[in-house]
Design a protein that fits this description.
The complex is a heterodimer of chains A (about 270) and B (about 450). Chain A is built from 11 helices and 10 strands. In chain A, the strands form 3 sheets. Chain A has a 4-stranded parallel sheet, with helices on both faces. Chain A has a 4-stranded parallel sheet with strand order 8-7-9-10, sandwiched between helices. A two-stranded antiparallel sheet of chain A has the order 1-2. Chain A is α/β, with parallel strands linked by helices and about 270 residues long. Chain A folds into 2 domains: about 5-135, Rossmann fold; about 145-270, 3-Layer(aba) Sandwich (Rossmann fold), CATH 3.40.50. Chain B has about 450 residues and is mainly alpha-helical. Chain B folds into 2 domains: about 5-30 and about 65-250, Fumarate Reductase Cytochrome B subunit; about 265-275 and about 295-440, Fumarate Reductase Iron-sulfur Protein, Chain B, domain 2. Chain B has 19 helices and no strands. Chain B has helices at about 5-30, 45-55, 65-80, 85-95, 100-105, 110-140, 150-185, 210-235, 240-250, 265-275, 305-315, 320-325, 325-330, 335-360, 370, 375-380, 385-390, 395-410, 415-430. The model of chain B is unreliable at about 290 (pLDDT under 50). The chains are: A alpha/beta (about 270), B mainly alpha (about 450). At the A-B interface, strand 1, helix 2, helix 3, helix 4 and helix 5 of A face helix 10, helix 13, helix 17, helix 18 and helix 19 of B. The structure holds iron/sulfur cluster (2 copies). One iron/sulfur cluster binds next to helix 12 and helix 14 of chain B.
Chain lengths: ~270, ~450
């Protein structure tokens, strides 16, 4: 018997639609929510995934996920130099997505976002791809979702730019515009936007020990963040989230500073 | 000037020009050893990038002080070198301040006044900026000037360039000062030019006779012009070549979003074949097309890189802005994107030299990978693009790092063990971790 997929939303559970399920009903959604490996398997990142679902649901968007039909986008393989594996992954994913006639994709992972947006087209997969912070920004602008912002009043938030969203794809403003809606104080680290320092996870570093050095990259970056004494470090990437969370733990600052994804903050403020 | 000096000047001038052209062609041939890549699309956008980044120095302002001083030297050098026209004409024809006299004949004396005054002011500014640069480089403790790849030669190269410019500008001003004193002594009403800076040096020559002044003027004239010729020919051997290559290099910039890596064509062909239901899995691969090499996956040596990556290497100014923003370098790892570029250039020079000496097919048994750039460096990169963002002339060290990684992984199976595990996971269960594919949708069940 197929499992039913519900996530709790305050009191009301949301059923998460799949492409296959909708197709069986003869429907096809406007947007595919690409969850990504971290969003699917990592305990912390799963919370971000749910926050994104709540936002999609609240905005009344026609969306679905691939569920068990989704596979790694191939990003870590490609950055590590395994082009074969990357293209194998890409081709499989493209076959699935083209089979569902996917037109638009939103994803919570800047790595998936980058690779599907920029590297899939040449392999036969052309879609309109947006990062979740871009979509959320549009939804807030058009009034499809609203946030009260009250609970964040007086809080200090700093945004850590994910490399593949910022420098990789020149998107610095969308997440900041979203955060501004929270009525909190947005403070910038000394290295931000195009000069933002990497969290240390990219280029497949997430999956290996760092090379020999005198410091971990995430520690260096966490120091940047702690310098501005934020209540919240906001990110837009599950890997940055892990790295910054670990960094905060390393300094024993869990009480003072928490790490959240932009989507989580909006879901919280919108009481979704 | 007598004919002898005209002849000497002509010979020096021609020799300098031909040696320069010879070296530029040598470098061009080296760059042509690279693989083909199309960078001639979107011409309009390319011109725009070149105007903004090379001519307009848009990326230099990220470091305001260095950027400002650099701007002075850059504009100053361009402006002062307009004077070169007059110098060459004077040298060849044996005249003195030919442009000035010519302009005065047309009642355009003030134009010449303006020109010389501008040259002088800029010469002084360049001189001061270069002295400050020297101090910054050698006295101030700026990390990026002292990283491990800044060995003896790169350090002296940078200092030499600055000293050169200081000497050239000083000679130019002294020459003007001597001329000014000559005109002043003779109360020459028809003396060409206006000398706001060198006039200040006039007291230096108080009491000097005409002969001494003429000698100083001539000697400085020769130092200035021969200095310029020597400098011109020093450039192709130096990081200073960026003053020329910055323009083509920014023109041929990568116009895609920085996050995008190239899709390898030769891999694509094989993968497509695997996905083609009509393909015969047991068929022998089609014979390679006439004239094409079988080709390897990724880059082992400079000849496996594209010509743009090689152009990048010759354009690198060794400023170290890339390395000073590199998360790996900042945290003490061996990787330095500047070193990647310097290694690529050094290796390319070596390969080019070998080929010229021993024929086009010569193999010295060395390669960029391993002999110059080690695995440890390559595996430290987070592919964050901080280096490409920081580079004032749009160099892309990351693309070289990735091409070398590709060779390590696909040709030599030399990925670190944890990455091999990650590859296997992706291959077997569609995720970089060892979770079964069937659990992928579990996130929506609990709560
Ligand atoms: S892309 Fe690699 S080499 Fe460049 S700055 Fe980032 S970590 Fe350093
Ligand atoms: S690659 Fe660019 S930033 Fe790095 S040293 Fe060379 S010129 Fe400077």
């Amino acid at each position: 018997m197929p499992q039913e997929h519900y996530i709790a939303i305050m009191s009301e559970p949301i059923e998460v639609p799949t492409m296959a399920g909708l197709m069986a009903k003869g429907e096809s959604p406007e947007i595919l929510f690409w969850v990504g490996c971290a969003g699917s398997f990592d305990d912390r990142a799963r919370k971000i995934t749910k926050a994104i679902v709540r936002i999609l649901h609240k905005a009344g968007l026609s969306y679905a996920v691939l569920g068990t039909e989704e596979m790694c986008s191939g990003d870590p393989a490609k950055r590590a130099g395994n082009e074969f594996l990357f293209q194998m992954q890409a081709m499989q994913n493209i076959q699935v997505m083209n089979g569902y006639n996917v037109k638009k994709i939103v994803t919570g992972c800047p790595h998936c976002f980058n690779t599907i947006k920029n590297e899939y087209p040449e392999l036969g997969g052309s879609y309109e791809v947006v990062h979740h912070t871009q979509l959320i920004n549009d939804l807030l602008r058009s009034g499809k979702i609203r946030v009260a912002g009250g609970s964040f009043k007086g809080k200090k938030i700093t945004f850590h730019d994910p490399c593949y969203l910022g420098r990789g794809n020149d998107e610095y403003e969308a997440p900041r515009e979203v955060l501004q809606k929270l009525d909190a104080g947005l403070v910038e680290m000394k290295r931000c936007r195009a000069k933002g320092l990497c969290c240390g996870a990219g280029g497949a570093q997430m999956f290996k020990e760092a090379e020999k050095g005198n410091k971990e990259v995430n520690i260096e970056r966490t120091e940047d963040a702690l310098e501005v004494k934020p209540d919240i470090i906001a990110t837009g990437c599950p890997f940055c989230n892990t790295m910054m969370t670990d960094g905060i733990k390393n300094f024993g600052k869990e009480k003072e500073t928490e790490v959240f994804d932009v989507a989580e903050l909006i879901a919280q403020a919108g009481e979704l | 000037m007598d004919y002898l000096s005209q002849i000497i000047f002509g010979v020096v001038f021609l020799a300098a020009l031909s040696f320069f052209i010879y070296n530029v062609r040598r470098i061009r041939n080296n760059i042509r050893l690279g693989k083909n890549i199309n960078r001639s699309d979107h011409k309009k956008e390319r011109w725009r990038v070149m105007f903004r980044v090379a001519l307009g120095q848009s990326k230099m302002k990220a470091r305001p002080l260095a950027g400002f001083l650099h701007l002075i030297v850059y504009v100053g050098f361009l402006v002062v070198n307009i004077e070169l026209l007059e110098i060459v004409v004077d040298g060849l024809s044996g005249s003195e301040r030919s442009l000035g006299h010519w302009l005065m004949r047309w009642n355009l004396g003030p134009v010449y006044d303006f020109l010389i005054a501008t040259f002088e002011i800029f010469a002084l500014l360049v001189l001061v900026a270069c002295v400050l640069f020297l101090l910054r480089r050698n006295v101030a403790k700026i990390r990026r000037f002292h990283l491990s790849e800044m060995t003896r030669w790169p350090k002296s190269d940078a200092n030499l360039i600055l000293i050169f410019e200081i000497v050239l500008m000083a000679a130019f001003l002294l020459m003007d000062a001597a001329d000014y004193s000559l005109y002043a002594n003779s109360n020459g009403a028809d003396a060409p030019g206006m000398y706001p800076v060198s006039a200040l040096l006039h007291p230096l020559f108080a009491g000097s006779d005409v002969f001494t002044l003429q000698t100083i003027s001539h000697v400085c004239w020769w130092i200035h012009i021969v200095g310029i010729f020597v400098f011109l020919n020093y450039i192709p051997f130096s990081k200073h070549f960026h003053i020329i290559l910055a323009f083509p290099n920014t023109f041929f910039s990568n116009l895609w979003p920085k996050g995008r890596f190239t899709n390898m064509e030769n891999v694509k062909k094989e993968v497509e074949l695997m996905f083609d239901p009509n393909a015969d899995p047991y068929a022998t691969p089609a014979p390679a097309e006439e004239g094409t090499e079988p080709g390897s996956f990724g880059a082992k040596d400079v000849t496996d890189l594209t010509w743009k990556q090689l152009l990048d290497a010759y354009t690198c100014t060794e400023c170290g802005r890339c390395s000073s923003e590199c998360p790996a370098n900042l945290t003490g790892k061996l990787l330095s994107p500047r070193k990647i570029m310097m290694d690529t250039r050094d290796r390319l020079e070596e390969v080019g030299r070998n080929k010229r000496k021993n024929g086009a097919n010569h193999d010295d048994g060395k390669s960029l990978l391993h002999h110059h750039i080690t695995k440890e460096e390559l595996w430290a990169c987070t592919s964050c693009n901080a280096c490409t963002q920081a580079c004032p002339v749009n160099i892309d060290p990351l693309s070289i790092i990735v091409d070398l990684r590709r060779y390590l992984v696909m040709e030599e199976s030399q990925a670190p063990p944890e990455l091999t595990v990650m590859f296997n996971n992706i291959e077997n269960n569609g995720a970089p971790w060892a979770f079964p594919q069937a659990d992928r949708f579990k996130w929506a069940e609990d709560d």
